[in-house]
Amino acid sequence: MKKILVTGSLGQIGSELVTKMRSIYGTDHVIATDIRDNGSEVVKAGPFEILDVTDATKMYNLAKKYEVDTIIHLAALLSATAEKKPLLAWNLNMGGLVNALETARELNCQFFTPSSIGAFGPSTPKDNTPQDTIQRPTTMYGVNKVSGELLCDYYFTKFGVDTRGVRFPGLISYVAEPGGGTTDYAVEIYYEAVKNKRFTSYIDKGTYMDMMYMPDALNAIIDLMEADSTKLKHRNAFNITAMSFAPEEIAAEIKKHIPEFEISYNVDPVRQAIANSWPNSIDATAAKEEWGFKAEYNLEKMTIDMLEKLKRKLN
Ligand code: VAH
């Protein structure tokens, strides 16, 4: 039976992935860790440890103490924050990753860490971006993600560590609010629609980015980690996506449910420049063929669920 250590467990992905994995593998089989204790259900419902991922010794000791066989490494700074604090981002994103990979190597653990559409740059083909293509990102986050992909492949070929990863698009969820991303406008718009029936977007109209609803992201992680390794031609990391839209399109979908909802624009040049450097849409054929990736939610279905869940959460 799997025994899993998750870093960044209180973040946007971790806070839902830990709960879902505990329901599948057993509460005591999923050890949640994060740099702080926020008293949430993730902390209270099962094993939780404080862990700063730049502390290699503590990470190794925790993995050994709980005799884990799987490491899900999520702790990282996202694109907009990384652009504001590039050296902190390099030290945390790459230092944490090396520590997690070394722990996985020494304790023979299976390993997952996410990459991102941020691993592509302005010279990457923007439409239906291929699985294997040019990756010259112009953000520190993108440099971290491309370096991370290469490092994870190196640990697989050099040391035989079973490393796997996906290039996540923007993730949309109603449980833990994301922090410091470029695609987070697509989360905030739902909160503002429910609370104020209006939203000012920092990303300009006509800016297309790949997106995915969190339930599909969680299933992708679990499906990839359970996949038959002999079928994997790629490892770090697979293109996956569910939809691609621009701000005016998500606004129009919300208006179908909240007719008085209005969107306006106050473009943030930093996050707009990041968004402009990313693909408009990516091709997920390799993930579909090698491990059966599929997304259940499109923009229409996600909007129905997000608005329903947020009306309950906020009211
Ligand atoms: C970000 N949500 O905006 C993250 C993600 C593809 C975007 O990597 O930085």
From TrEMBL:
EC code: 1.1.1.103
Coiled coil: none
Taxonomic superkingdom: Bacteria
Gene3D superfamilies per record: NAD(P)-binding Rossmann-like Domain (3.40.50.720)
Record carries keyword Secreted: no
Family stated for the protein in its record: Belongs to the NAD(P)-dependent epimerase/dehydratase family.
Keywords: Oxidoreductase
Official protein name in the record: L-threonine 3-dehydrogenase
UniProt GO molecular function: L-threonine 3-dehydrogenase activity
CDD domains: TDH_SDR_e (cd05272)
Gene Ontology biological process terms in this record: L-threonine catabolic process
Domain NAD-dependent epimerase/dehydratase: 4-240
